[in-house]
Design brief:
Strand order of the largest sheet: 1-4-5-6-3
Order of helices and strands: EHHEEEEEEEH
Structural class: alpha+beta
Oligomer: single chain
CATH superfamily: Hotdog Thioesterase
Largest sheet: 5 strands, antiparallel
Radius of gyration: 16 Å
Number of helices: 3
Number of domains: 1
């Protein structure tokens, strides 16, 4: 019986002027952009760019999002994002992400729930039976990056 250790996806960002409000504090909407970037980076690292999925007619919309803001980030500050993907059921998965400050304090925590949909012509339909390709993508995301 083989087992694996789930590994965290890690990304580092710098809070730039466009990420802040007039007081230099990271604006709440910037957290959403960072979360999207983390998911796209993870897909790239497993060899499945989001653009390739889109060309095949698949999209991965957010169906639920929860963020707890704990400690603010400021212009020029480094943000380390630690993420894990988890398959919830046949069609739903999530990405849990910690936003860490340089001293490892948690600045924010987020849980994003996602599903696969299929775009065809003018319609968008939930993918209720995942093809093997999509199942493999989810398993690779859940397993974490290869070292």
């Amino acid at each position: 019986m083989s087992s694996f250790i789930k590994k965290d996806w890690k990304s580092t960002k710098i809070v730039l002027p466009q990420h802040t409000d007039h007081a230099g504090v990271m604006w709440h909407g910037s957290y959403l952009n960072f979360l999207e970037e983390v998911r796209i980076e993870a897909l790239n690292k497993i060899g499945m760019p989001y653009s390739k999925l889109s060309k095949q007619g698949f999209e991965i919309p957010v169906i639920s999002l929860k963020i707890q803001y704990k400690i603010p980030f400021f212009h020029g500050e480094k943000v380390v994002l630690i993420s894990q993907f988890k398959i919830e059921n046949k069609i739903r998965f999530n990405c849990k992400t910690l936003f860490l400050k340089s001293n490892n304090d948690i600045g924010a925590e987020a849980i994003v729930d996602l599903v696969f949909v299929r775009k065809k012509d003018e319609s968008i339909k939930l993918v209720r039976e995942l093809p093997d390709q999509l199942k493999n993508i989810l398993l690779l995301l859940e397993e974490g990056p290869k070292i």
